Structure formats: C-alpha cells, structure tokens
Amino acid sequence: MNLIENLKWRYATKKFDSTKKIPLKKLEYLKEAVQLSVSSYGLQLYKVLIIEDKKLRKKLKAASWDQSQITDASQLFVFCHYNERGDEHIDEYIQLAAETQNIPVSTLKGYGDFMKNSLSRQTDSEWESWAKRQTYLALSNLLMASAELKIDACPMEGFEPEKYNQILGLEEKGLSASVLATVGYRSGDDETQFRPKVRKPFERLFEEI
C-alpha cells in the first residue's frame, strides 16, 4: 500500500527550496520512470526537456505567469509533443522494436501500416489533441515516481506554449510544449503542504455498473 501513502503525501508544491538539488541517481530514476510510461501504440511521440540552466529558466518564468516554481525547483521538465504525424516516427519505432525483440522488421510491417493508416485519419485538430494527451501519461509517471522518492513536484499548465516554443527553439525541432512539471524539495514556508487533501468521496467519484 506504499503507493497510496505516497499519493497522500504528495501535493502540487507551490514553493520550492532553491538550495536543494535532486541527487543524480534519483534524477536518473525519474527519467527511467518517464521512459517506461504507457503511450498509444507504444510510440512515445514526445520529447522531454530537463532544464537546469538558471538564466534560461528565468526567461521561461516570465512566460509562466511569473510562478516561482520555474526558477526555484531543482529541475524543470518540459513535455513536448511532435507537431507532425510523419511516417518516420512509426518507421523508427518499428526498427527499434525489431532490434529490441530480435525479430525481422518484415514481421512488424503489418503493425506499422496499421498505425500509419490509423493516425492518417485524424484531422489536424484531432492529432494535436491526441499528441498532447500522450505527454500527460508520461507526466503521471513522473509525479508518481517523485512521490515514491519523496521528491516534491508540481504539474503546471499555467504557461504560454508559444513563448516556450520560441525561447527553447522547439518549432525548429518540430515540437511544441504541452505541459510542465517542476521537481525538487518543498520549502518550509510553503503553506500549501499543511492543507488537507481535498478529493471527492468514493460514492461521488465512482459508479459501479
């Protein structure tokens, strides 16, 4: 039942202790948790930027409603989705799957064609919505892994994606910022940590049919 206790412990941290850094070994653990996230078809059509540079984060803070977490946290994770649905993403996945599972690429051609056909049917709006949702699945793994290590985290949608794209040069890479997460260690001055967690009771949240 450690997962439930860890989830009860975590909260969206509003103030971080800027003097505390996440040890490298624990940061690698968080990265592996993100790497192991579920995703539609297993494609992982996103890239995650882990930003420590203070000058860069100061610029990003201005594009994040001036929220202090951006600069005070140990690291800033920026989850980015790909803007285009190019077949090369699927081809790369099929090649990686063949190498990892030690099977001929030809045996996976049917699955590759299925994915290409399925994604090609999406409108541009549907693609963008779908691609963004993939990053939230990865974000969830980051939050749970952070809680397990007693590392504080704050998922953040309060930012200007267009400005992030410009500052980080994402458009040139075919990417757009989807959602953020700051990770580190809570400040003793963060009053939010002392508030009881507010969640709907089971009888209002669930309906068993």
From TrEMBL:
Its cofactor is FMN. Keywords: Flavoprotein, FMN, NADP, Oxidoreductase. Residues 7-185 form the Nitroreductase domain. GO terms for molecular function: oxidoreductase activity. It comes from the Bacteria. Belongs to the nitroreductase family. This is NAD(P)H-dependent oxidoreductase.
